[in-house]
Amino acid sequence: MTEREAKVLGCIRRYIHERGISPSLHEIQDLTGIPYSTVRNCVMRLHEAGYLSKSDGKVRSLSIRIAEDKDQNLDKLFDLLIRLGDLARTIKYNTEP
């Protein structure tokens, strides 16, 4: 998994956790700063690798598919990415996370 794919997957996971629905590709673009076409390609590769499930032609149909036996440390990685994002926002805006 590339750094951008991990960032996109972490963004999707966090968005679903916070809002209960999956983000659109444009929202992933806005939240990550990754160009739209790259976001679309990352989502496609994550789907092909089995990390995401999605319904073709439907918006907000992304869901996380992580089997524990596939990568037990992935959840820890996502949590770390989320905390690092919170820390970066805190530093950037000098606010509490």
Report a brief summary of the structure.
With 97 residues, this protein is mainly alpha-helical. Helices cover 60% and strands 4% of the residues.
Features:
two-stranded antiparallel sheet, single chain, mainly alpha, globular, 4 helices, 97 residues
Describe the structure.
This protein starts with a helix and ends with a helix. It is globular. Helices cover 60% and strands 4% of the residues. The protein has 97 residues and is mainly α. Helix 1 crosses helix 3 (36-48) and helix 1 (3-19) packs across helix 4. It is built from 4 helices and 2 strands. The protein has a two-stranded antiparallel sheet with strand order 1-2. It has helices spanning 3-19, 25-32, 36-48, 74-93, and strands at 52-53, 63-64.
With strands numbered from the N-terminus, the spatial order across the biggest sheet is 1-2
Oligomer: single chain
Question: Total helix count?
Answer: 4
The parts where pLDDT drops under 50 for at least 5 residues are none
Helix content: 55-70%
- CA radius of gyration is 13 Å
Succession of helices and strands: HHHEEH
Beta-strand segment tally? 2
Class computed from helices, strands and strand pairing: mainly alpha
Mean pLDDT: 82
Overall, the morphology is: globular
- Estimate what percentage of residues fall within beta strands: under 5%
Distance between the termini: 28 Å
Task: State the major sheet.
Answer: 2 strands, antiparallel
